[in-house]
Amino acid sequence: MSENSSPRRIRADAERSTARILEAAETVLAADATASLERIADAAGLARATVHRRFASRSALVDALAEQLSQRYLGGLAEARVKTAPPLIALHRLTEIVFDLKLSHRFAIQLSAALTPEVLDGLDLLFARLRDTEAITAVDPTWCRQVYLALLHEVHDLPAGSPTLASPATTDETEAKIDLLVRTTLGALGGSHGATALPLTN
To answer: In angstroms, rounded to a whole number, what is the distance separating the alpha carbons of residues 180 and 158?
Structure first.
């Protein structure tokens, strides 16, 4: 066994423990935002001392959840190719990704700290490109982003079977919400009928 194998194994074990803690924290805090580190340790199947070694406080753990989600937002912006893809296509793809994140990060999605300046800059760039291609007429990307994020929460929380989600294009609830969000956002920002008529993706 090499002299470096033990430190590598220790680091790998620490990374696995941290991942388990974050996964458990997301699940537990989504159900009860006041849950203690002890409850999270129990859900992770780890000793409480292990959790306290990784995270000195509950606040530090919440910060780690926000950072994890921030990195996934950045990954989503990259996957949607907000810098290079046709902006309407990028907006649709990014919205699909964000809806997935809202399902998998039901607690962290509420943390404003996850929307770091780098994430906000990526959103602002997308709306600036939508303006440049005349998909919208609103001129302030920051305002556009704020409208999008506000509508995102409203549309996501629509109850199943809401008549607002009725769509001739799909019977899938999530696809209908994505389509509704994109169309409503573009309409609110001065998009033309043609710009909002992008077909649903499969």
So the answer is: 11
CATH dotted code for 1-56: 1.10.10
**Short-list 20, 188, 1, 152, CA closest to 76:** 152
Average pLDDT of each block of 10 consecutive residues along the chain (202 residues)?
Answer: 60 83 96 94 94 92 96 97 97 96 91 95 97 96 96 89 79 88 95 53 43
CATH topology of domain 65-202: Tetracycline Repressor; domain 2 (1.10.357)
Rounded CA-CA distance 33/31 in Å is 7
Domain ranges (residues) in the chain:
1-56, 65-202
Terminal CA-CA length for the chain: 50
DSSP state of 57: S
Q: Give the span between the Cα atoms of 36 and 129, in whole angstroms.
A: 44
Phi-psi region of 128 (alpha: psi -120 to 50; beta: other; left: phi over 0): alpha
| H or E element that contains 7 | helix 5-31
Instruction: Compute the half-sphere exposure of residue 36: CA atoms within 13 Å on the CB side of its CA.
Output: 4
